[in-house]
Amino acid sequence: MPETRSIPDAIFQTFDEKSDPSQVAPRLAALRAELATMGVDGILIPRADVHQGEYVPDCDARLAYVTGFTGSAGLAVVTRDIAALFVDSRYTLQAPAQTDTALVSVHDTTDTDPGAWLAEHLPRGAKLGFDPWLHTPGRLAAMREPLERAGIDLVPVTNPVDAIWHDRPAAPQGPIEILGPNRTGKTTEVKLEELRQAMAAQEAGAVVLTLPESLCWLFNIRGRDIPHNPFVLGFAIIPAEGIPTLFLADNKLTPENRRALAGIARLEDKAGFEDALRALGTQPGAIWFDPDTAPVRVKSLLKEAGAETVEKRDPILLPKAKKNEVELAGMREAQKLDGIALAKFLAWFDAAAPRGGLTEIDIVKMLEACRRDEPSVVDISFETISGSGPNGAIVHYRVSDKTNRTLIPGDLMLLDSGGQYLSGTTDITRTMATGPVTEQQKEHFTRVLKGMIAISRARFPKGTTGAQIDILARQFLWQVGLTFNHGTGHGVGAFLSVHEGPTGITPRATAIALEAGMVLSNEPGYYRAGEYGIRIENLITLCDSPAFPGYLEFETLTLCPIDKRLVAPALLEAAEREWLDAYHARVLREIGPHLDPDTRAWLESATTPL
């Protein structure tokens, strides 16, 4: 029987407590002593590293080191006598729990602009330091305006956090893998030719790439430098003519890597990147970089060298987001493999949860074990969000040995997870019943489900943005005065980052239109603080509508049942019921043949029509 499987040890995810509020006081004291020796009145500490990605290696987790906050976005400011931490609405519960709130005030950026707050709390004439490798021109410009009006100077400095971080982890040294066109769909040579066409339209003599996912996609390489993301950390300069240069840690390149990249890119150590930027000042044509992702230091080096610049979005982002047929086939395969793992897990969970005794960590370990049954899985795609009862209401909850909660039968269980398979990346959230369900829980779940179905069934003209369709997911919650404070969907990479730009389904989405081939998440939710959280997430891809030329619609990629015990059928329209029944029939058809008899019997029951 599925429930007899024993709970193994996890290998991809750890559960150690990554923050210790008791360390905030001594680290603030050490940092303030360093600020005094530098002659500045404060320092900005962003979450970002030099590559400005969402995820950073342990050696660059400066914000977490100083404040204890481990979320994926945030900014701290430390002055001689005050400290503040700015986070978005996802982290308003997590941040105060991880830092020392007696010493660090926590602010929600939806209500408080960091630049305006600093202008109010720093004296005229103050000097506020920043590391020019850790801030983009775009973000710094937004902060500079209110500070200049208040007479506060932003001063580039050598990072003082590094000076006090005596046990700083070593830089990652993961291996580099070269992917063939059977997995990427296009060779690097073809991608470079397409990039140079875009460069010609901008009269650019070279492009500077600082995002690891951009250079990984362009050069068809993957690595292990970031936990759960197959990234190689590095930079690239692509000239309009001639061979590109890849700047990577020299000691991680094997002879096989060098042979595979020979003739495609010149290989240089990352330490040579600054000098290469200075040399671009003598090159013909403008130098293209992205002011929203490249560090300020890149811009200042090019300006000092006398280079003409083109400041536009990274030209890799949009082509990377529009998956080709080989990439889409790989993503479909990955979702199928993940669906098999989820069926095994949910069959076990349904049998084990009502008996009591399961912890959130037990649940993570078992889910990971079910994924590891598949030989082509290489990692999880992010740390699993395993929130039972009230912990499910913490949007980006991370279970640790300290927070680990025992599931009480009757709790709602929110599980947001994903895998990195050789064929592609997955991301799925399911909310499960573990016992009797209240009518209120059913109503909230069904309203979230209706929003998810509305996105799944949407058809819209080409040129539509994610912001324009986001309301489809929220409308049923809005009808009863409820909402959720995160985006409805984000882009997903093909064996790359589980969070991928440049577009998504969110009120804050850019004006970039949705296009065929993009893979997005579809994940509305509802969170009742102190009680439970609900989120339902599938991955979807955009395709041309076969019935209506000039229109787009979605194909659902994820293959996993949705808990019908939480559905209030009376709240569903006939078309919504038909969608859910058809989806479940497809899950059984595509996943069922790959399961053992007991698990298939569970899946048959879980996918019966409403």
Automatic annotation (TrEMBL):
Chain ranges of the Peptidase M24 domain: 330-540
Transmembrane keyword on record: no
UniProt GO MF annotations: metal ion binding; metalloaminopeptidase activity
Alphabetical list of Pfam families matching this protein: Creatinase_N, Creatinase_N_2, Peptidase_M24, Peptidase_M24_C
Top-level taxon: Bacteria
SUPFAM superfamilies (alphabetical): Creatinase/aminopeptidase, Creatinase/prolidase N-terminal domain
GO CC annotations, alphabetized: cytoplasm
Record InterPro entries: Creatin/AminoP/Spt16_N, Creatinase/aminopeptidase-like, Creatinase_N, Pept_M24, Pept_M24B, Peptidase_M24_C, X-Pro_aminopeptidase_P
Keyword Metal-binding carried by entry: yes
CDD domains recorded: APP
Residue ranges annotated for the Creatinase N-terminal domain, each copy included: 27-163
Coiled coil (UniProt feature): none
Domain Peptidase M24 C-terminal: 550-610
Keywords annotated in UniProt: Hydrolase, Metal-binding
PANTHER family (alphabetical): XAA-PRO AMINOPEPTIDASE 1
Record-stated family: Belongs to the peptidase M24B family.
Protein name, as recorded: M24 family metallopeptidase
Naturally occurring in which organism (per UniProt): Pelagibacterium lacus
Taxonomic lineage of the native organism: Bacteria, Pseudomonadati, Pseudomonadota, Alphaproteobacteria, Hyphomicrobiales
